[in-house]
Every structure is written in C-alpha cells, then in structure tokens.
C-alpha cells in the first residue's frame, strides 16, 4: 500500500486548516449518505482506513447505538486514537479481518487511491456488508489531485492510482452494487462561506467537473462476484 501515513498526519488533521476541512467535509458527506440512502438507522459501521478514528468517532456521536469499528494499516495512526467508544483493528484494506455479512454501513474515504488492487477493496467491502447495506467511498478527482502534486502540495508516491468517477461506477457494478449516488463535491480545499450553495449552483450549471472530490454510494443487493 502506498502513502501509508504516520502520526504527523493525525496531528495535521487537528492543526492544519486544509486537513481539518477535508475531514469535516468528508464526514458531512458520509453522514448525509447514511441518513438519506440507508433504509434504517445503522447498528454497525465499518471504517476502512480509519487513521486516527476521528471520522468514526463523529459517526458514533451521530449514531450512538451503532457498533463502530475501524480498520487501519498503520499502528502509529491507531495509537493516536483518543476515543474509547470505537474499536480499532490493525489490518489490510484488501484483506479485511472481518467475517461475511456483518456491517450495515462500510465507509472508505480517501483510501482506494492508495491500494494496488482497487477492485479487491470494493469486493471486500461488499463481502462484509449485510444485504441492503451500503458502501460509501470518496476519492480525490484525478485532475485536481494531479495539479496538487505538480505544485508540491502532495507527494507523487502517495497514490497507486487516481481513479475517475466513471471507473468507480464500473468497479461497483462489476462487484454487484446497486449505485445509489455518484457525484463530485468540494469547491475549495480549505472551505469557503456558503460553499454548499455555490456547489449546488455549479451542479445546476453543469460545472460539477470543477469540484475537487468524488463520492459514490452503493447498496449490496445481489450475489457476491469474484470476477
């Protein structure tokens, strides 16, 4: 896995404006996805690539009765988790140490671009979901992420592959997900006033290709595919 992060990333998520904003915005989108697209209040949530568990802790606050489990590859990041009400497990995103058909919701934010076999991550998420459970995944838009790398904001070696929304849709379809939502979001890497209003206007004007991030939500409906 490329771009395995350490405790400096956890510190940045609480001190650096861009990191704080990205976490806040991704959490907002994940919560919105759960509340609008899951058929009922989830009783179990799995966060793949949970890092320091900050997003998962926020989800636990929103769904206090849910069992919230995070999978993280880097032990340094796991050690930065301060929450006592979520459960973190050291493990690989493409070989989840989880039984079949366990979770109502699986989330994987800003992780698929770091793995060498993206489809295997999607397959593993499908496997551990209960029927009618949903997978919520985000990943940066390849064009804008490429610019960020070019100007030195990101290290090139952090990503195995930058994935387009159309390829995400193809991966979800191949594995057997019903696509519930697939769109771009995030107008600014650090946030701005009235951003949600501006994003809505951009989408109405078909300028959504200018947005920096991508989100896809799929529901487990069919039979697990190994192809």
The unreliable regions are: none
Q: Could you give the order of the helices and strands?
A: HHEHEHEEHEHHEHE
Q: What is the number of E strands?
A: 7
Look at the helices and sheets and give the structural class.
Answer: alpha/beta
Structure explained in plain terms:
The chain is α/β, with parallel strands linked by helices and 227 residues long. The protein has one domain: Rossmann fold (3-Layer(aba) Sandwich). Helices cover 37% and strands 22% of the residues. The protein is built from 8 helices and 7 strands, in the order H-H-E-H-E-H-E-E-H-E-H-H-E-H-E. It has helices at residues 7-15, 17-37, 54-62, 75-78, 118-128, 142-150, 165-175, 195-204, and strands at 44-48, 67-72, 87-90, 103-109, 129-140, 177-185, 213-220. The chain has a 7-stranded mixed sheet with strand order 3-2-1-4-5-7-6, sandwiched between helices. Helix 5 (118-128) links the parallel strand 4 and strand 5 (129-140). Helix 2 (17-37) runs parallel beside helix 3 (54-62). The protein is globular. The protein starts with 6 loop residues before the first helix and ends in a 7-residue tail after the last strand. The model has no long low-confidence stretch (mean pLDDT 88).
